[in-house]
Amino acid sequence: MTDTILALNVGSSSLKFALFSTDSGEWPELLLRGAIEELATAPRLKMQAADGTLLQEVVWKDSGDIDAVLPSLLDLISAKREREKLVAVGHRVVHGGRDLSAPQLVTTDLLTALDDLVPLAPLHEAQNIAPIRTLIRLRPELAQVACFDTAFHRTMPDVAARIALPRDYEAAGIRRYGFHGLSYEYVSRRLREIAPHLSKGRVIAAHLGNGASLCALQDGRSIDTTMGFSALDGLMMGTRPGALDPGVLLHLLQQRGMSVAQVEDLLYRRSGLLGVSGNIASDMRVLIASSEPSAREAIDLFIYRCAGQIGALASALNGLDGFVFTAGIGEHSPIIRKAICDRLQWLGVEIDEDANSNNAPVISTEASTVEVRIVPTNEEAMIAHHTLSRVSGLRTPDA
Ligand SMILES: Nc1ncnc2c1ncn2[C@@H]1O[C@H](COP(=O)(O)OP(=O)(O)O)[C@@H](O)[C@H]1O
Ligand SMILES: CC(=O)OP(=O)(O)O
Ligand SMILES: [Mg+2]
After folding, report:
1. Residues 291-348: pLDDT tens digits?
2. What is the DSSP string of 325-357?
3. pTM for this one?
4. pLDDT digits over 10-20, tens only?
5. Are residues 314 and 230 in the same domain?
6. Catalytic annotation on 149?
7. Is there a single domain that holds both residue 245 and residue 139?
8. Beta-bridge partners for 85
9. Do both 242 and 141 map to the same domain?
10. Annotated binding residue at 208?
11. Is 46 annotated among the ligand-binding residues?
12. Same domain flag for 218 and 304
């Protein structure tokens, strides 16, 4: 009987899952994968075999939470892989705070530490922890490993991590952590395999999904990133504004009399593409298809802000050798990639329009001084890798 590992990646708009065999060495082999979209409103699951063949589709009648869908998910997976035995589950946990800088086996103490981090990531942390507790109840024999989005950014120098507040705030943990680290760790490792000439150089990776950020990679390690203390900072996102003048917060609280809960809701759930488009959508596909001027304005702002922050990270890297697009928008939207790249001509970026329209691995021209690539991310593979390393007592090799 083959042992398997389940990787769970709960994002702000979906639950992605993937099942891996533990038999194949350092990198577990993919057996099946899938996603549950619209978790909060109308959950629908799609499960595919490793070769992409559709295995199953399920639509739940009621809106649910992860707790409600997880038992069905486990049943559906074991029905498809009857001959394998699930031995461990790895979880993406968005915030590891100041102390959790590497994947950890789940213990009661760890869960208590994670509970304390919930206010730092209101859109994610509680959703990340919920399936861990449900699984302790449903399947107490399973080993569980928490893999942190913040961990990969531990290599950021102090000058990039520091916030310009009085020193005692930093001592209390108010510093820039960065997120999407599992995605950037995967992209960095993948670059080492497919573009070793780039992986040693100065690269910006753009994780453009529902949440969005940039990471400046030097020699494969994070030296700066656009998200900071929380997953609110940096780029404009599906429902978050990105970098915001803190004076706006004071104004909302003092002059408009908004409560803290209202401001939190505004910043995490009602801003970004959704807010600027006038509630048309947070989904880039819907905005691109819309003829409403407000949809166009939301897209234009997303591109403008993204290009500006690429400039800032290019300065942190003292130049640019490579640029990588990844995640939902980055991997699938030629229109957005082109619009961003058109604003990077001053950096020597030149796009090959055919390659870009075809989502080719390299989308820059020969003449471009920056090699622009699409690298599909695989946070689940990274989670499975760390989980296998933890449960088999191996140390994870450094990225
Ligand atoms: N073909 C496409 N064109 C434009 N945007 C796309 C396309 N496919 C996916 N997306 C965008 O990708 C986003 C989801 O990205 P993803 O990385 O899966 O997000 P998350 O992990 O945060 O749930 C969607 O909100 C959608 O806007
Ligand atoms: C950290 C973060 O924003 O994650 P996601 O893109 O999954 O929302
Ligand atoms: Mg994601």
Report:
1. 999 999 999 999 999 999 999 999 999 999 999 999 999 999 999 999 999 999 999 9
2. EEHHHHHH-HHHHHHHHHTTGGGT--B-HHHHH
3. 0.94
4. 876 689 999 99
5. yes
6. yes
7. no
8. 3
9. no
10. yes
11. no
12. yes
